[in-house]
Amino acid sequence: MSLKPFHDHIRTSLANPALQAALDGNVVRRTQGSQAAFASLPDHQERRARAHTVRAEVIAHLDQYLVQFTERVQANGMIVHRAANAAEAIGIVLAIAREHDAHLVAKSKSMISEEIELNHALAGYGIRAVETDLGEYIVQLRGERPSHIITPAVHLRRQDVGELFHEKLGIPYTEDIPVLTSAARQVLRQIFLTAEVGLSGVNFGVAETGTLCIVTNEGNGRMCTTVPPVHIALMGIERLLPTLDDLALFLTLLPRSATGQKLSVYTSLIHSPRRPGEIDGPLERHLVLVDNGRSSLRNSELAEALYCIRCGACLNVCPVFREIGGHAYRGADGAIAPYPGPIGSVISPGLFGLEQFGQLAQASTLCGACKEACPVDIDLPSLLLRVRAGKAAQNRNGEEGSGVPGAVKLGLNGFRLAAGRPGLFAAAQWIGGIISRIYSPRSSYMRLPAFTGWGFSKDLPRLDPRPFRARWKETQQDIESRPQVIKVTAEAVLPAARAIPSLIIQFTEELNALGGKVVRVADQDLPLRLVEFLHQRGIESVFTDEAAGRFAPALQQAGIAVIREPDPQVRCGLTGVLAGIADTGSLVILGGKGHPLTASLLPEIHLALLRTSDLLSSLPEALCRPEIREAPAAVLVTGPSRTGDIEMTLTIGVHGPGELQVFLIDDSSGG
Question: What would be the CATH architecture of the domain defined by 503-666?
Answer without folding.
Answer: 3-Layer(aba) Sandwich (3.40)
